[in-house]
Design goal:
The structure is a single chain. By secondary structure, this protein is an alpha/beta fold. It has one domain: Peptidase C15, pyroglutamyl peptidase I-like (Aminopeptidase). It has helices at 22-33, 50-64, 121-130, 147-158, 177-195, 201-213, and strands spanning 5-12, 39-46, 68-74, 81-84, 86-88, 114-116, 137-140, 163-168. The longest helix is centred in the C-terminal third of the chain and has 19 residues, at 177-195.
């Protein structure tokens, strides 16, 4: 029998005006729904603290040895389930929940400025939208230079690109916790298919084209 695929999905604790963080609510909902019998899903809540992220992420990757880590964060600007294509190394000047920010304003000393996920988020987004589950997905290349972007970059660095980041809107704007859980389930399932090389001919063609334009 094939061994189960290990997937880690994280949400964030409350911060700022987000006294309830819809990302962790959505991830807990996903934890209840699961990803099917072939997937071993582990969920956890991440502190909105740079130093805690630096300690937590290496242990998550080492302990679970996941095929994919998906981080979920809330964005007050988001109105869709937003898939982030890349993480950024520099520009971290905003203070975290402990009133701290990295002195270097960066994630990894001498790391590349930007790391892209091995997953093509345009394909994931299109597939989720085509499935008509009542959730709209979109793609972004700027995760915001705060704990979301910081966490994503660190995970992309540790996992050699086998990470993803999903921004969700605050609860009720427009989605309920159940909606977000279902949306997240659909997104992660499509990501897993792509990891296994499940691209259509048309998608492959588009991806090739994509790579040459950067």
């Amino acid at each position: 029998m094939a061994s189960k695929r290990k997937i880690v999905v994280t949400g964030f604790e409350p911060f700022g005006e987000h006294s309830v963080n819809s990302s962790w609510v959505a991830v807990q909902e996903l934890g209840r729904l699961g990803l099917g019998d072939a997937v071993d899903l582990y969920v956890c809540e991440v502190p909105v603290e740079y130093q805690a992220v630096q300690e937590l992420l290496p242990s998550l990757w080492k302990e679970h040895q996941p095929q994919l880590v998906v981080h979920v964060g809330v964005s007050g600007l988001a109105t869709t389930v937003t898939l982030e294509q890349c993480g950024h190394n520099k520009g971290y000047k905003r203070l975290d929940n402990c009133s701290f920010c990295p002195a270097s304003h960066s994630c990894i000393e001498n790391g590349p400025d930007c790391i892209k996920s091995v997953l093509d988020m345009n394909t994931v987004s299109k597939r989720v939208n085509d499935s008509n589950i009542g959730i709209t997905a979109s793609v972004s290349k700027d995760a915001g230079r705060y704990l979301c972007d910081y966490t994503y970059y660190t995970s992309l660095y540790l996992g050699q690109g086998h990470a993803a980041f999903v921004h969700v809107p605050p609860l009720g704007k427009p989605y309920s916790s159940q909606d977000l859980g279902r949306g997240l389930q659909a997104v992660v399932q499509e990501m897993l298919k792509l990891l296994e090389g499940d691209y259509t001919v048309e998608e492959r063609k588009n991806n090739k084209h994509c790579k040459h334009t950067h």
